Amino acid sequence: MAPPAVPGGGAVAAGGGQQGQGQQRQQQGGMGQTITGIIRMAVFWYFISKFISPKKAPTDPSILISNLFQKGDSLDMWFYLSEQERFNDFNNEGALIWHETNIPYAIWGPESTRSLSLKYYPSEALKHNGTLYAHVFFARSGYPPDPSDPEYQPLAAFGRAHPVVAYLPKSKTDKRKSLLGDSKDSKEAEVVSQVVDDGQADSKDDGPVEWISYWKPNVTINLVDDFTKYPHNAVPPNIAPYLNVEPTSGNYFPTIFFNEFWLLRDKLIPLNETVTELTLNLEVGPISMTKWQLFMQIDQSFQVHRSYGSMLEGEADELKRVFLEGNPYLLVITMVVSMLHSVFDFLAFKNDIQFWNKNKSMEGLSAKSVVVSFISQLIVFLYLLDNDTSWMILASSGVGCCIEFWKIGKAMHIEIDRSGTIPMLRFRDRESYAGNKTKEYDDLAMKYLSYVLFLLVACSSVYSLMYERHKSWYSWILSSLTSCVYMFGFIMMCPQLFINYKLKSVAHLPWRQMTYKFLNTIIDDLFAFVIKMPTLHRLSVFRDDLIFLIYIYQRWVYPVDKSRVNEFGFGGEDDQASAGEVTAAKEEEKKTN
């Protein structure tokens, strides 16, 4: 619960500004599917709420309520800032921040949109968790908004209040620390408090949750272009909470909407005793009924995703940032290919399972790469589990671990050794793998690549231990291994390239599954440009491109070897032999007849 407002304190307005930055959250995987799901849910909710309403008691259809104002009516606007939730001090010139006249209502043009940028000097109460409200009043041109004024008309003026300060929880200290001791950097880092999501501020933290106030640098006021005539007791449920009904006539005033859809969390400015001036950007303008409803439905869909654990708090802002900072044409392409990404991902999964399920021989395939792939997938799963990732991403990574372990059972013999006190799993090479040159080439490639990999892992881990902070030694091990999987994972794909080079053949590879994965990699490249993600993850996308290009080059250079089995476990010679047997049987049948 946010602390109560602190009364008192003066306010002065001026021009110019200062921007603050909050903590930025990183997005992890599945962004294209999330964007598609959010938009689909928003559109679904919009049409359901617009055309389907709950059954109401019988009413007189002739009793309708309508807008008290007409399209094009000229309005005057007053914008006040006060630390009181209810405002009636209209004579206070210091509280009046902005005044505009002759704003045409529901007219789309430059004359209906006004803006102002200024500096606000906070009071001492506001610096210490105080509250500040924006009070916006509209009236027909020539009429005052003050009810105590003799010329005041109740049907000609309306207004609404909105907080300019947001309260968010924060952690007392950063739980990460330098594992080598209390260095100067680690002490300074622990003093600085970090803002956390609402979902993370739970009872597991020691002591009460501390709340701090944040300044909203942008305030956008929209008048909804709505002239719908609603039944007086059957207003749609998504409209009713925002409808300002005048009690005597039963009609409604124009809806005032404080648009914070594009106000990202990292744009909020923390308030404390060191803040001397704040930037305030004001804008007033019209908004269509459809756009207003779409904004609200998208926000509701974000809340639904967060309640089900399929979206973290920061991911909503990251999705909005894509539309704010991305190229519009590139965004359209991204939306289209995100659907293709899901299709290719499913086809790659299906063909991967099909290949290993029907595979009869490990000749030409790297068994060690399969084992290393499982270890890498397990490291990533444990890392995501340690960093409180959403359950959807965890479930996807967990299923991937199970599939990689199942593939080990297809590539090698897995036996349970019960000779000791604790049963142990023992892995034994298959005869088709150990009885030819494949194992020799695989061992040779892994031998030299492991030297390079171990050196890179050691250097990266030592650097992370010395210059980065971690929650525990377990977190350091996981983060170091995960960084190595991202940065040096392509090294583990090199043994298969080496085997292809020595055998001068690629007929043993699952080309259908690799083709779908390559198409998904191209789509991931596109997402790497338009979606904010960790640098290591972005680099891991492009290193996959290099490996796949080498695979394609090898397929072009090496001729087709009919003696090797394909992705379905059959070789070209088997097909020729079968065809020869069929032809001989037909010839024998003709002779008999």
Automatic annotation (TrEMBL):
Could you tell me the membrane topology recorded for this protein?
A: Multi-pass membrane protein
- Specify residue ranges for compositional bias: Gly residues: 7-20
Q: What is its main location?
A: membrane
Q: List where in the cell it is found.
A: Membrane
Composition bias type Basic and acidic residues, residue spans:
584-593
Question: Any transmembrane segments, and where?
Answer: 329-349, 369-385, 448-467, 473-494
UniProt keyword annotations, A-Z: Membrane, Transmembrane, Transmembrane helix
GO cellular component terms? endomembrane system; membrane
Instruction: Locate the region Disordered.
Output: 1-31, 572-593
A single Pfam family, by name? Answer: CLPTM1
What is the top-level taxon of the source organism? Eukaryota
Q: Cross-referenced InterPro entries, in alphabetical order?
A: CLPTM1
What family is this? Belongs to the CLPTM1 family.
Query: What is the name of this protein?
Result: Cleft lip and palate transmembrane protein 1 homolog
Task: Give the organism the record lists.
Answer: Populus euphratica
